[in-house]
Design brief:
It contains 15 helices and no strands. By secondary structure, it is an all-alpha fold. It is globular.
């Protein structure tokens, strides 16, 4: 009997180490999948001119491909999240990888605009919807309430793609053609994306159990007012959900306005086109730093505190960018903005999992991601409209700085929703 007891006590540490290793392997592998499938938003810009030159389509018509992709992703995310909660994320992620590769390969043979709308707008849009939300939900389940850093690692695949994929796609187009570039991107998604996917694991059942908040852990005498797993409908019935919803929307509006218009804004201020384009590379690098660095701080001192600091600092930096009239200011302010934006991205899903539990994380975060995509579509349109009216971007930056300030107030209002659990 004593020997058996000794064996039982010696097993948990090794099991715990294996679970920890599986969790981090899943986060890193998820970054690989997102790097290979979610780069459309950053790499598509280099295809716009070649497509216009080849087919003679208008800029608006070609840009519509990106708009359809964003809309498709927004519509797909909540559905994908719900399906991942019910059937598991791995199958959905694999389907997404297949659709991404297929979309790019078919696009290489496109001869009309509607085909690109279908292949890149719809197929790649569905891919992004059924990969990102399930991936973030899975990683959050693995790490529970301390998932900000892990989510940062997983989502860093997207920010790293902002650094790597545009120059790679540009090289492939110059080396051969846009058709060859699409074929290589699609093939890479299939081969390397599937390889990365093979290391992703669904979390054990214990990781999906409801968690007590700090005040109730280890204190059975405390009244059972703790967070059990919320359904999507229940979460949407709380102010907390809507605070996170609009924080995520405002962050998306601001970021997409910046990445779409900051280069032309810098050129209008007198910068050379090549030097201005470097701003996006800087933002991509610091975006990654924010996801990997500041998100880890959120796990230590609390996501709500770090989120609030990022949003109020973001408001100040956006105002500075609106006043920028020299390249040095664009570089420095852009670098700081990249850190602040990147830090917010993994904290929102981490807080969502902490506040609402992780059993229905896919559906809940899928709805938040749909909100993000809506904000992503609004940001560039807002800035373009302001420029058409005023002849400059200053007012657009003032508006987005104000949105960041509102998000800061919402961060201060965030509270864990508590209710009596159905059973203890």
């Amino acid at each position: 009997m004593p020997e058996k007891q000794l064996k039982i006590e010696s097993n948990p540490p090794s099991d715990k180490t294996k679970v920890r290793l599986d969790a981090w392997v899943t986060a890193i592998s998820s970054a690989g999948v997102l790097f290979l499938t979610a780069h459309f938003l950053y790499s598509f810009g280099v295809f716009v001119k070649p497509l216009i030159d080849n087919f003679g389509w208008s800029r608006a018509a070609v840009s519509g491909i990106a708009s359809i992709r964003n809309l498709t992703t927004a519509l797909t995310s909540p559905i994908a999240g719900t399906l991942s909660d019910k059937y598991g994320a791995r199958r959905l992620i694999l389907v997404g990888i297949v659709l991404c590769g297929l979309g790019y390969l078919l696009a290489s043979r496109a001869t009309s605009l509607w085909q690109l709308y279908l292949f890149l707008g719809v197929l790649v849009g569905i891919c992004n919807g059924i990969t990102f939300s399930p991936i973030i939900a899975t990683v959050t389940r693995w790490f529970g309430g301390k998932s900000a850093l892990a989510n940062g690692v997983a989502s860093s695949g997207i920010s790293i793609s902002q650094i790597v994929l545009p120059p790679v796609a540009t090289f492939l187009i110059a080396w051969r053609s846009w058709e060859i570039a699409f074929i290589i991107l699609g093939g890479a998604a299939w081969v390397l994306g599937t390889l990365s996917w093979s290391f992703i694991k669904n979390p054990p059942a214990a990781a999906r159990q409801p968690q007590k908040p700090e005040a109730a852990r280890g204190k059975p005498e405390v009244s059972p007012l703790f967070v059990k797993d919320y359904t999507l409908a229940e979460a949407m019935g709380t102010p907390t959900f809507w605070f996170l919803f609009f924080i995520y929307v405002f962050n998306a509006v601001n970021f997409q306005m910046v990445v779409v218009h900051i280069v032309v804004d810098a050129v209008g201020a007198g910068a050379a086109a090549g030097a201005a384009a470097l701003i996006l590379t800087i933002i991509g690098i610091t975006n990654t730093v924010g996801r990997l660095g500041i998100s880890g701080l959120a796990d230590r001192i609390g996501g709500r505190i770090v989120l609030a600091l990022c949003m109020i600092l973001q408001a100040g930096i956006l105002y500075v960018l609106g006043r920028a009239n020299d390249l040095g200011t664009f570089y420095i302010a852009g670098a700081v903005y990249g850190i602040l934006y990147g830090s917010v991205q993994p904290i929102v899903p981490a807080l969502s999992g902490d506040y609402f539990g992780t059993r229905n994380m896919g559906a809940i975060f899928g709805m938040l991601n749909a909100a993000y995509m809506g904000g992503a579509a609004l940001g560039p349109l807002l800035a373009g409209y302001v420029f058409d009216i005023t002849g400059g971007y200053y007012l657009a930056f003032v508006i987005t700085a104000s949105l960041a300030a509102v998000a800061f107030v919402l961060c201060l209002l965030l509270r864990r929703p508590e209710r009596k659990a159905a059973s203890v």
